[in-house]
Amino acid sequence: xxxxxxxxxxxxxxxxxxxxxxxxxxxxxxxxxxxxxxxxxxxxxxxxxxxxxxxxxxxxxxxxxxxxxxxxxxxxxxxxxxxxxxxxxxxxxxxxxxxxxxxxxxxxxxxxxxxxxxxxxxxxxxxxxxxxxxxxxxxxxxxxxxxxxxxxxxxxxxxxxxxxxxxxxxxxxxxxxxxxxxxxxxxxxxxxxxxxxxxxxxxxxxxxxxxxxxxxxxxxxxxxxxxxxxxxxxxxxxxxxxxxx
Length: 245
What we know:
Blueprint: E1 2-3, H1 14-26, E2 33-40, E3 44-51, H2 56-74, H3 94-105, H4 107-110, H5 125-129, H6 142-146, H7 152-164, H8 183-196, H9 211-221, H10 225-232, H11 236-244
Antiparallel strand pairs: 1-3, 2-3
Helix pairs in contact: 1-2, 8-9
């Protein structure tokens, strides 16, 4: 797992996520490593990979150095982009392989960005289901699918069912205090919640945002009162009052 320095965004636009995917692909050449699953969020990312001709430290250095060079040049900045060294956990058995794959693909669901793993664009989920997926050329799905069934079509169905199941699995080295969503993630969550609560984004909705809505949004986003006020248009004192009730 990698996350932004001071929990800041490491992806400002979809173009940045696309560039990171291209880097993942280019650094896989010559059997350096195999990528089994990934998920790119705004301020952090998850990778499930196995070493090939290079060890994990070298692999991650190649990936991060290349992306930081791109990012700093594009946004005319200097300094660290990622917070410290990458964090990793060794996967030791088949159960952990499939469980961690689900953990990674459910990241956007738990963040409130999508209802199902397959709805989120920037993860490897689609590569497991659709052979024609662009990500299918980057992700090796055989290992994980093979743990479900030797028949590919049967394996895909079992995989889809497993990915939907609620999981309480905790990966200690990856688990950390809940962090606030990045700007784009927060906007996406807010928009999805408006739809779920039958609130029309085109109307003047400030008067319609209930205490329950604000409390639920705070719980899912972990945003500060100031950021919630900026996003919703509500007064900070009003939001503070709602959260205390």
